[in-house]
Write a structure and sequence with these properties.
There is one protein chain. β2, α2 (61-64) and β3 form a beta-alpha-beta unit. This protein has helices at 2-22, 61-64, 82-85, 95-106, 138-155, 176-193, 210-222, 245-258, 288-304, 359-370; strands spanning 30-34, 47-50, 75-79, 110-115, 161-164, 198-204, 231-234, 263-266, 309-311, 317-326, 329-341, 346-348, 354-357, 375-377, 384-385, 391-398, 404-410, 422-428, 436-440, 445-448, 454-457, 460-468, 473-477, 483-484. The longest helix has 21 residues, at 2-22. By secondary structure, it is α/β, with parallel strands linked by helices. The radius of gyration is 24 Å and the shape is globular.
């Protein structure tokens, strides 16, 4: 009898060990997973996805388009590519762009179209790569104007969001005044053809560069052109995703000195999934796990600050450097240089085909499934905790019903590769849950919070032993979650 009890107990220990390991240290019963929703099923949300560099063939839309709609993003950022649209002077090819825009719209995703870069077929036509120069000659600027007009007429009714140039502040020759002049002429052409167009300005690489923004806005104010801007988009790559917000706050205050009608939003940020020597956030031992954590923290951090947010990018980019700049001249390289930017949610093969969907792809789906138009942020949400770590905590409620979703993560450092968690207690004086569940946003696993782990006294909720780590988890009302079986 004692032997059988011992064997049964031993089997129970093995089962517990396997279960605990599969749940990554979460001592709750898993009841399902977050069920993805496609873009066409979602009315609106905070999320855009990057589909950049198609104009230079660093990616192939046809290879990954079937994964766009299922991701759940409501906008996709595209670069129109003057040089690809006009390969010969006065000869236009919009077919490649037509196919992308029409397919995105059919999948319930709104195109966000950027006018860039230059076109070397014109003398003084500017460069066709990041940090390149603007078109400057009279001939090139007239050709630019014509290209923009052709696009505005062609895509009226299909494209409402237009962004003018990308990260002009990376090139010292692209002064704020030079950018302002290019912005005004471009925006006026778009608005004359599409009066209701939404126009994004700056696409700023360095959000700490408030002087550039101030000079740009000052020029527009002095020339009575501030009305041309709807939003200013900013980037700002930081290893710890929360480090960029101080710069955002400073810029937002600056913008409101000029206009209370112009919004500030995040227009491009992403994280590598492996250590890479080039591009933003390089020379760090990133993994697909830490990439996923970074992405979740950045997008949910933006949501917590009421900032619209874009993840760069949907798929890894196979960069091909064909030109270099020398004393202002664009020189073609004898041998192209090939490099890979691994910030994609999808692993790309060398031929731009899809390798596989990374964990970050599924985590992005978890965000879009839960955080749609029906949830609104609760400002200054009160909480108490015994955590010894710095935390990000934001709360949301279902409009008209007040049930809540709370996002929590440790924010003190750059995301790491560990999934180890700390058990933390919380008190929410103004909570509202009928059946609270725990969700690990990285995996999408949904767990029952046992009755012994929380106590309700009126609107006061106390939760004990909540597993927390450097990746967002949720305490959420179960009825607000699209739940699927495990």
């Amino acid at each position: 009898m004692e032997k059988r009890i011992f064997i049964a107990f031993f089997v129970l220990l093995i089962s517990w060990g396997t279960w605990a390991q599969s749940n990554e240290g979460i001592p709750f019963k898993q009841i399902g997973k977050v069920k993805a929703r496609s873009s066409s099923e979602i009315v609106s949300n905070n999320w855009a996805i990057g589909g950049e560099t198609l104009d230079r063939d660093y990616s192939d839309y046809n290879q990954w388009k079937q994964y766009l709609g299922p991701l759940g993003a409501k906008k996709i950022r595209l670069q129109a590519g003057w040089a690809k649209c006009e390969p010969e002077k006065g000869v236009y090819n919009f077919q490649w762009l037509d196919e992308i825009i029409d397919d995105a719209l059919a999948q319930g995703v709104e195109p966000w179209l950027q006018t860039s870069y230059g076109n070397p077929i014109y003398e003084g036509g500017g460069a066709l790569y990041l940090s390149g120069g603007f078109p400057t000659s009279e001939e090139a600027l007239a050709a630019w104007d014509k290209w923009v007009e052709q696009m505005a007429k062609r895509y009226k009714g299909r494209v409402k969001i237009w962004e003018i140039w990308n990260e002009s502040d990376l090139n010292v020759k692209n002064t704020p005044e030079a950018y302002a002049k290019l912005f005004v002429r471009t925006a006026e052409i778009i608005r004359s053809n599409i009066p209701g167009a939404t126009i994004y300005a700056l696409s700023l690489a360095n959000p700490w560069g408030s002087g550039y923004v101030n000079s740009f806005l000052s020029y527009l104010k002095n020339n009575n052109k501030l009305h041309l801007i709807d939003e200013i988009t900013v980037h700002g790559y930081t290893y710890r995703p929360e480090d960029v917000y101080s710069a955002y706050f400073t810029l937002d205050s600056l913008i409101h000195k000029y206009s209370d009608q112009i919004k500030l939003n995040q227009g491009e940020l992403g994280c590598p999934s492996k250590n890479q020597q080039q591009y933003a956030l390089n020379n760090y031992e990133w993994t697909e796990t830490s990439q996923t954590k970074w992405m979740l923290r950045k997008l949910l951090g933006d949501l917590g600050h009421d900032i619209h947010s874009l993840y760069f990018t949907i798929i890894d980019l196979n960069y091909i450097k064909r030109y270099r700049s020398e004393k202002g001249n664009i020189i073609e390289l004898e041998q192209p240089i090939y490099t890979v930017n691994t910030k994609g949610l999808i692993k790309a093969n060398a031929d731009n085909s899809v390798g596989y969907l990374k964990p970050s792809y599924y985590a992005y789906q978890n965000i879009t499934s839960i955080f749609g138009h029906s949830l609104e942020r609760i400002p200054n949400y009160a909480y108490l905790t015994n955590s010894k770590q710095s935390l990000s905590v934001y709360a949301y409620m279902l409009k008209d019903f007040d049930y809540q979703v709370i996002t929590i993560w440790e924010n003190g450092s750059t995301p790491n590769n560990s999934v180890e968690k700390t058990m933390v207690d919380f008190e929410f004086p103004a909570g509202n849950f009928n059946s609270p569940v725990y969700i690990d946003m990285r995996t999408g696993n949904v767990y029952e919070i046992p009755a012994q782990n929380y106590k309700k006294t009126g609107s006061h909720y106390g939760f004990k032993g909540i597993p927390v780590y450097d990746s967002p988890i949720l305490i959420a009302e179960k009825s607000l979650i699209n739940l699927s079986e495990k």
